[in-house]
Amino acid sequence: MAAAEDVISTKPLITKSTSLPDYINFLLSPDTPLDFHVNVGNPEISPQERIGAVKWMLIAHSKVLRVMLLESKIRHDNEMSITDLDPDTFKNLLVFMYGHDNTSTLQFKAAVSLLSAAEKYDVKELKHKLAEMITTQVTVDNVFVVLQEGYVCETVPELWKIANEIVQYQTKDLFSHAQFPRVSPEVLLHIVQQEALSVSEV
Q: Which domains does the chain have, with CATH numbers?
């Protein structure tokens, strides 16, 4: 799996003073002696985190991981490496695969990162839930998060439509936002290539 160009921090895992069920905490605990482990994170950015996982849950929920774990050369291994997700996003993915839906408690950036993971690893039910939720929450204050994950978010037509409408009709607010000077070249190019912007010149 190719390394992600940018690994966005998504801490904390849970917000709004919620807690995970005891069995989820047990499965996510590094002290639980699971027989399969995933080394997660881009090693060029920071050391990978070794996370225990229930292998058959990965196989059951993700078509991509199903192929990797049943049909590839690693099918007999007790561990694998995932470099295109950060550890917190992978843990959120595990929470859903283990049967607990905590999507409504995630911070916006964490939800978008999880949407990206659901798309990459073909977890359709999770992608559908997150797409509906994120679409209702996107604003000028968080649209840069959506634009940064454009290659995924554009696969959700209504979300991508709203994000581009914010760019086109709230351009002045976008340009004056504190995050604007830090946008990636790809996001900046996407903004200036819009058919219309609500400013006199760029």
A: 1-106 (3.30.710)
